[in-house]
Amino acid sequence: xxxxxxxxxxxxxxxxxxxxHPGRLLDVLNCFNKNQYKCKKWLVDCLNNYEYHFKNKTKDxxxxxxxxxWYGLTAKLLKNYFAxxxxxxxxxxxxxxxxxxxxxxxxxxxxxxxxxxKDLEIAEKSFxxxxxxxxxxxxxxxxxxxxxxxxxxxxxxxxxNNYIEIDEHINCSASLQDFADKFKxxxxxxxxxELDMEKYTRFMLIGAKQ
Length: 210
Hints:
Blueprint lengths: L4 H16 L4 H7 L2 H15 L12 E7 L5 H9 L4 E9 L2 H10 L4 E4 L12 E6 L7 H10 L5 E7 L14 H6 L5 E10 L4 E9 L1
Parallel strand pairs: 1-2, 1-4, 2-3, 4-5
Antiparallel strand pairs: 5-7, 6-7
Helix pairs in contact: 3-4
């Protein structure tokens, strides 16, 4: 491990969280564990290779929204590694106020927004890409409503899994095809992916709003 100012900042932030928000420490550490990094870096790599057209793909720069963004890891990896277009703005949405407060400590270049995605007026925004890596945590109706409110050609990146042993996972899928079938009437030019995580399988879809 390289020891530099970034390393010092990370440990300083963890010390502050331990002292001021001890109940959040484990949640923060889970957000940045190796499986979370693996799944989200995989997402960016696959997105970089998506060949079909999507909203504003021909423009110089685009806006991206991450729904259920937690402490901002997905947004940060996109900012660092997304290669298709220049990112003009990237927003990390989460209803939990602590994700905004603590996320800014690690990633002050990410725009954190405290909001329930049910209240997000997507049609009024300029998002070219909308990402949701937490489909297993959300009711299917809410995910469907999110897609329905988006303009045509908006690119969606959706992740779920078959890890039913977690109580908070209320909307798992039995297989990749099962996950894809939930969106067969919503998305087009869909690319399907799965990633073996030993205890479970991670599923991902990338497709444009019909």
